[in-house]
């Protein structure tokens, strides 16, 4: 049928932690390919990744790191456990909060605030200063906090993302109530395993590596796999493997692309060293900043060395 | 007055994350010095540490690491920010959960479960298998989940620690519903800064170290401060400093005591290297396992080297 | 002609530091392929290697390291400067000295001793004890020392290798006059550049590496190229490059064969790092001791890692 | 007696490898304190150091490194074996050679050249080009080569230092016959063990370190003792210990003075690591170039860290 591609396009969907109005939706809005496609709102990271694994969605947008709270444990642990996933893009969303209430409410009316615990922590200073005697009811998400105002009367106001007013009939009692102006959340777009996208020169490579538990200095050895090839890391997060205290896996973002010789060689070193390596993908950095590296770690240097080794083994005369 | 010491003893209090029945209370119950003293139940780690800083309590028991969830972010961040605190003891509590309900309830009656999000995650498998269509209401703590059953009818059952039945009139619908039998939480007892307790031979030293941001390989250099002196680490957790993505501090537990020469020398190296080091304390390990180390990192070797250096500088003839 | 191969074999020659009776000749006697061939006696290492380069000899036997004196500078420097040479074998000769004189001479007659300076140093204790007031005339070689007794009357006795009496009509005044019973000299057989011989499992790889002079810690970085791949070194000698104080090249013997994955990968690392690498050869060790290495540096581990990397790049699903 | 000091001064003597006219004498001429004192000409390094040990001389001038030939083995080995010596100064002498002969001789008359083997090697190119068919007779020193022209007729000319014509009635047949214009020899002035001289800011520290033989990577660990404290090395020479192949000691020159905190701390690390460390001295560099180092290795940083550690141990409140 001549309209098949169109239909196919129409059924392509993207999963994200909903409902509408979340920071995750704001991240998904940055993806050109997702425009005009179906956006599936799900309840948690597990559901989002399940959609990808099951083929219900072509990709899922999930939060992976918060500049205040650190790595998102649920995401990091899910990526460590679910096979055949690949990060294909990175997106940054500025974390800003507003205090919202049903129309007609004033700040003076607010006795109890509904807020997701993480958002609540990040607005701690403002709430203490402006609502010193408020109570707190926890919500499962920032949007659920706002939605709860219509469900029951337990809270008088909610902490929510600015976009909430596009979806709910709420008044903004205060803007920018977050404690940290630089707060940002990093999201990744995750698809099924696929061929590596081409290099852009401003790429990032993510992996999860378990440390061997048979020797001290294992982390040092892991880090040397990168440093000895001139590869810098922008993220190194420890996560417990979960079977016993003291056993860790590490979530790593390395500067560069798997098709960069120095990155590929680092990955070989890591793979030889670790009992378990999960390659999560090479993809363009959100900030589009070109990777800087010392010239002696250039691709040409690696290629020339391999040519030299081949010549030596085959007994070629020394180059003059 | 002759009874002053008694009075003083009577007013000594210990803070812990309450209410009664929490795992934190179970940890505090392991502290001999705390027996017969006042136990102050507080709402979060910040309040517990505030009690210590303000002198309301001689010490606070706080959770610092969970074998499933990893480091307790709130604790690690609080210890990084509040000065003049010292860890004086370490305690382990096995993490077990029960499903409780008001008397007369049966498992078949349970439609909605109230549970702290972390506990809920850790009982995921059992709940999915036994209550496949249940709903979840989040609570601010494990005990609050149970207590909520008496406050409203939103939930029919709660996930709680086993000790809950000592404090509430609740029936246990199911025991051991946690997914991981080895789950354990590590707690620390925190006091104001004080002189270091003597060595036991089975000690641990905790610190929080910011990485200098002016160079690559900084973490490698940090780890070498320990490895080059034969000091093993049992914990290394990254935490964002919070002012920008990519800036980290590390929470470190090193084997040994600050009065061990190799540990002291490592700390000197760390201090010279890092823009900010927070020494959290040297204290006996919960598991009382003696620290093993290679003989060439023994105190005697360090002392002999210093004697040698002194002799060399003063121009003593070489030892025969 | 049917006898061509025979003729060719007849004209094959091996160069060695002569004349007959030297330790070098004793080393050459250990080479099965050299039996029945022409042995060219030359005056120094340079002449021996020139013979190989010019095609006058198929190989040259030269001393490379002495357990007492260290690396043979002339050999190491010649190998660093003359291209297209390859070490194809290693041989050990026990260093023993005798004191010889023309027939009729007694120990009491000996006033002046002719000896190569190195041999003289190695017999220092015996000579001081038994000929306390002797004088010393230096010779250009151990055999020249003995031969000089027939040329002039300047010396009454000579320090020489035991084999000297097979070639000269001399009496042995004293045997085993060397100070060190374990003294041994290591020789290498050098041919033109050729394809690498197959692995024996007890191989050694020799190279000469210049350090880059643009940074501190360069030697550390060089050594890490081996240690990070589990390759041990049995020799590391510094030699001045010769153009300025403080500029060095290093002569390295690494355990293993260039066809061992861990050795090949080390060589790639070295080549990427160094402004000049001279590969001298992979060849069987004289002591035939099999190379021991940690299993995680086995060939299979390297090959598996490359297969994994290839799969990751091509987008294969993760192995289950 | 009032003239005692003068007498004492008059009897102070300095030993050097003679006779008059050697490069070593030229080095001694650079020592202000040696002017007007007795200069004892000796035959070798061992004799020179014996003079110091026995108190016959207050110091000995000995060659320690040659930019062409590398470390002077005899010196390095003597310093490793004779206890209670201390290097107190460093001197550089440009290595230049002249071809000398008895008056009346012309270049065309020269058939045989007497030369110390090292000097001979360093004039190889000139001799081959200008005296292509010459023979060579080895001498025990550069001056002995010249002196031999008067002893016998075996040689027609000699390779010698330029200063030789101040002491012998010889004609210079050719000047500057050395192959390398930058050739320089480094000498050290050695006294008995004494208190360390004060820092000048342009100092060097020399030591000899044996590697422990119980583990691989030992040299790497040795180098890290310096690099981890920001101390650069200007010399690293391997020397066989002499009891078996593969056992080494290393001769090290480190930038800085033992009273520099970073150097002292490096020495402590080396001493803890090595079975045998010989401290040879901290003394001003010949080139008077101030030592450059990264500010974080400044003395203040070390001192501040020790103060911090002391405060931590004594339980002082954290600095605000």
TrEMBL record, chains A, B, C, D:
NCBIfam families reported in the protein's UniProt record: PRK11898.1
Site (Essential for prephenate dehydratase activity) residue list: 185
Natural source organism: Agreia pratensis
Keywords assigned: Amino-acid biosynthesis, Aromatic amino acid biosynthesis, Lyase, Phenylalanine biosynthesis
Gene3D superfamilies membership: 3.30.70.260, Periplasmic binding protein-like II
A biological process term (GO) from this entry: L-phenylalanine biosynthetic process
The protein's annotated pathway: Amino-acid biosynthesis; L-phenylalanine biosynthesis; phenylpyruvate from prephenate: step 1/1
InterPro entries documented for this protein: ACT-like_dom_sf, ACT_dom, Chor_mutase/pphenate_deHydtase, Preph_deHydtase, Preph_deHydtase_CS
Segments forming domain ACT: 207-285
Cellular component terms per the entry's GO annotation: cytoplasm
Swiss-Prot/TrEMBL catalytic activity: prephenate + H(+) = 3-phenylpyruvate + CO2 + H2O
Pfam families named among the record's database cross-references: PDT
UniProt key word Transcription regulation: no
Enzyme Commission number(s) of this protein: 4.2.1.51
An annotated Gene Ontology molecular function: prephenate dehydratase activity
Domain Prephenate dehydratase: 13-192
Name recorded for this polypeptide: Prephenate dehydratase
Domain of life where this protein originates: Bacteria
């Amino acid at each position: 049928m001549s309209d098949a591609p169109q239909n196919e396009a129409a059924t392509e969907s993207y999963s994200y932690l909903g409902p509408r109005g979340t920071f995750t939706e704001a991240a998904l809005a940055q993806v050109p390919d997702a425009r005009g496609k179906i956006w599936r709102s799900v309840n948690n990271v597990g559901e989002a990744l399940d959609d990808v694994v099951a083929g219900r969605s072509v990709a899922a947008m999930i939060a992976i790191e918060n500049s205040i709270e650190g790595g998102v444990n649920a995401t990091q642990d899910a990526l460590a456990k679910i096979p055949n996933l690949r990060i294909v893009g990175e997106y940054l969303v500025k974390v800003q909060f507003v205090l919202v209430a049903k129309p007609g409410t004033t700040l003076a009316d607010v006795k109890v605030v509904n807020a997701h615990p993480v958002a609540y922590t990040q607005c701690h200073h403002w709430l203490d200063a402006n609502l010193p005697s408020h109570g707190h009811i926890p919500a499962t998400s920032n949007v659920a906090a706002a939605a709860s105002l219509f469900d029951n009367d337990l809270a008088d106001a909610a902490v929510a993302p600015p976009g909430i007013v596009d979806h709910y009939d709420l008044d903004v009692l205060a803007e920018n109530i977050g404690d940290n102006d630089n707060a940002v959340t990093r999201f990744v777009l995750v698809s099924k395993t696929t061929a590596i996208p081409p290099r852009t020169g401003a790429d990032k490579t993510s992996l999860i590596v378990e440390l061997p538990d048979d020797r001290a200095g294992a982390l040092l050895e892991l880090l040397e796999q990168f440093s000895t090839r001139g590869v810098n890391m922008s993220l190194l997060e420890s996560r417990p493997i979960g079977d016993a205290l003291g056993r860790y896996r590490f979530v790593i973002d390395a500067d560069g692309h798997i098709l960069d010789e120095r990155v590929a060689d680092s990955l070989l070193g890591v793979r030889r060293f670790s009992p378990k390596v999960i390659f999560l993908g090479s993809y363009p950095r959100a900030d589009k900043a070109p990777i800087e590296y010392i010239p002696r770690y250039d691709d040409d240097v690696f290629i020339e060395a391999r040519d030299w080794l081949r010549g030596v083994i085959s007994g070629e005369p020394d180059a003059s």
